[in-house]
Amino acid sequence: MDTTPIANRTHIAFFGRRNAGKSSLLNAIAGQPVAVTSDVPGTTTDPVHKTMEILPLGPVLLTDTAGLDDTGELGGLRVEKAYEELRRTDLAVLVADAADGVGNFETAFIGELRKRRVPFVVVLNKCDTHAVSTDELDALKAAAAAPTAAVSAKTGEGVPALRELLARTVLPDTEELGLTSGLVGEGQTAVLVTPIDKAAPKGRLILPQQQTIRDILERDAIAVVTKEQELRYTLENLRQKPAAVITDSQAFLKVSADTPADIPLTSFSILFARQKGDLAALTKGVRRIASLKPGERVLIAEGCTHHRQSDDIGKVKIPRWIRRLVGGDVQFDWTSGLDFPRNMEQYAVVVHCGGCMLTRREMQYRIHYAQAHGVDVTNYGMLIAYVQGILERALGPFPAAALAFAKQDPETAS
């Protein structure tokens, strides 16, 4: 479970006023001292994360946040960081001191949770010093229209029941497709083309390749892994035609040339774009790149913080391809990890990685935030396929996206 990627874990975050006992409660649920605790309000500054397993949820990420009522300039920054956690939170735990109860502050935050469609539970902590009756808890449940619990992080009272409540409350993301859903079926074979990436630690495949292999195996299908130089030989020696060839985007051109036209072809990056975003909508970003003019600004965003290589895909190759396509100088900014700019209006388009390190909720936030500011978004794999003239083929396995791309008029796209 410890090796489960962060993006595949259920994200449970703890929110509330200072000194409500958020950190102590997280420690009690985790069964170990994850967060620093103190009677001094404002002890927690930056969010604190802990990976663990809670049955029957499986692998989760627990996050402790700063008090939402923090004050001053520094306190305001802490509150901002806490609110940023909502972008990737699958379940929010709103913690209040049982002696204070749920007041206007908590009610306002509940409104924010509903606005963002984040499932939540309300927990009255410190019930060892202020008893909470069943009637009080029922009244709170009715007022909040959400599950509630009374616990003591100090004594452990109610903590096991709260763990079970969290597991029951998390909503499964029924919208999230499997990576190869509709592409590879039971008993079928998929050929994965995986160049040995210099950015990957020695002896390992990079995360998108690992996750795709796992998805194929979970479908009771067969994954055949090869490098781009051996693809033609691999295909010739398969007894049956594969259901699909899935490649690293940087090998697209050679793989397309070596893959017969009657075999569906796409990339790992496009699979992730479909799983975590809106593939049809992302085709607009490709068209926007085609209409870029010299001097416009492009944001290149990555969800991880890998070590940059001399010919890095995001830092070097994509800017080179875009400048060549535009025929003039284009300005670029880069973000990585959890950073994502608010001043989106300065950009003409966003080119995002596949997002294998990001949750679907976080990726959806980024796409919708950019679009709300009039900025289209596209994906590494889609851009690479476009500049190499094979995007229509790469989108072929996904008819809705292929149709959306074909319908767009390059002369009027913006």
TrEMBL record:
GO MF annotations for this entry? GTP binding
Instruction: Give the NCBIfam families listed for this entry.
Output: GTP_HydF, small_GTP
Query: What keywords sit in the KW lines?
Result: GTP-binding, Nucleotide-binding
* Domain (Hydrogen maturase F dimerization) ranges: 180-277
Top-rank lineage group of the source organism: Bacteria
Name listed for the protein in its UniProt record: Small GTP-binding protein
G domain location is: 11-126
Coiled-coil parts of chain: none
Pfam families for this protein: HydF_dimer (PF18128), HydF_tetramer (PF18133), MMR_HSR1 (PF01926)
| Organism encoding this protein | Ethanoligenens harbinense (strain DSM 18485 / JCM 12961 / CGMCC 1.5033 / YUAN-3)
Q: Name the GO cellular-component terms.
A: cytoplasm
Q: List GO BP terms, alphabetically.
A: tRNA methylation; tRNA wobble uridine modification
**All copies of domain Hydrogen maturase F tetramerization, residue ranges:** 282-396
